[in-house]
């Protein structure tokens, strides 16, 4: 199919009629991801120009290109060859390097990045400890690890296990992509970060300003009646740094000087 309102073919074997749910997430999360990143950069006095960033779980490369526009030298890593191909096709000459490599075994050198952003990964991997160890391995001492993920609550299970992959009218992900045991509370993730050699510094909740907008956007994109450009405004994600995360949250950690290398 072609055209601005054609449904996206899923990258995760959801079936030929399914939309690409990861792309929908990337589009609707982009504004809060960039807003939070700017806050982290300010707190750490990290200048984008002259710094290197790695986006893990980069999908079609939207976040990677956003970082490149800030001035970072960016590497975008994703385990899906199809996602890498789509990212290359969408590339607009910003100099992003696209790699097909899993988050659990990144094909990049030690101590080579000032920033790692982990997107659409921690809530689906069966090996979160390996993902975090790899992030710590490729970060320079004092560098930042930024992530967004899904809390484990009754509401998050209803949305991610039910609406996003179970209910026919709102399903945007293949069945089984999310599971309750893969969703992690902030305190659990902080403990895992510490074991990997990363010191947790902050957590910020984020959510749609009005959940009805998310429902309309999901159903409209699935039906092909909404374009990509319409989704972010309709969903309107907002940061809530003073609130406890009910569904989704962002956070960051800093790599400590000494990180234990695993064989």
UniProtKB/TrEMBL annotation:
SUPFAM superfamilies per the UniProt record, alphabetical: S-adenosyl-L-methionine-dependent methyltransferases (SSF53335)
InterPro entries cross-referenced by the UniProt entry: Diverse_substrate_MTase (IPR051052), Methyltransf_11 (IPR013216), SAM-dependent_MTases_sf (IPR029063)
Protein name: Methyltransferase domain-containing protein
Family, per entry: Belongs to the methyltransferase superfamily.
Domain Methyltransferase type: 54-146
Molecular function (Gene Ontology), one example: methyltransferase activity
PANTHER family: METHYLTRANSF_11 DOMAIN-CONTAINING PROTEIN, METHYLTRANSFERASE TYPE 11 DOMAIN-CONTAINING PROTEIN
Species for this entry: Streptomyces violaceus
Keywords from the named record: Methyltransferase, Transferase
GO BP term, pick one: methylation
Superkingdom, taxonomy of origin: Bacteria
